[in-house]
Amino acid sequence: MSTETDENEVVPADRFECRSCGYIYEPDEGDKKRKIPSGTLFNQLPEDWNCPVCRSDQEQFVNIGPAGTPSGFAENLGYGFGVNAMTPGKKNLLIFGTLLLLFLFLLSFYSSG
Question: What pTM was computed for the model?
Fold first, then answer.
């Protein structure tokens, strides 16, 4: 679920990750096992709601922000060559694209001869 700000800008809802097992509660999906409807924010969950995977309490969950946001601490996003501010998908594209280009470059040595 998304929330709206004063400028009618849509802000995606924060996701929460269980520190015990790594389960991520997605507000846009809800919890089908416990019949929590999609769009239910983490702070709106019932007090007796536990992790559907490992049954940990809500205190074991940590806010990891909305989907698609840069990973890491906010104060570190300005360091480096701009890679820290990239989303995980863009980082994957950069890494695997570079590996593909390197592979094609090395393969080109076999074609000349």
Answer: 0.55
In terms of pLDDT, which residue wins out, 5 or 74? 74
How many CA atoms are closer than 13 Å to the CA of 74, on its beta-carbon side? Answer: 2
Within 8 A by CB and 6+ apart from 69, the residues are 87
How many CB atoms are located within 10 Å of the residue 13 CB?
Answer: 18
Domain ranges of the chain: 1-67, 71-113
Residue range 56-102, pLDDT digits in tens: 999 999 888 787 666 656 666 666 666 667 777 888 899 999 999 99
Task: For residue 41, count other CB atoms closer than 10 A to its CB.
Answer: 13
What is d(CA 51, CA 61) in angstroms, rounded to the nearest whole number?
A: 9
- CATH number, domain 1-67, options 2.60.40.2470, 3.40.50.2300, 2.20.28.10, 3.40.50.300: 2.20.28.10
Residue 39 dihedral angles phi and psi, to the nearest 5°: 95, 0
* Residues 6+ away with beta carbon under 8 Å from 76: 84
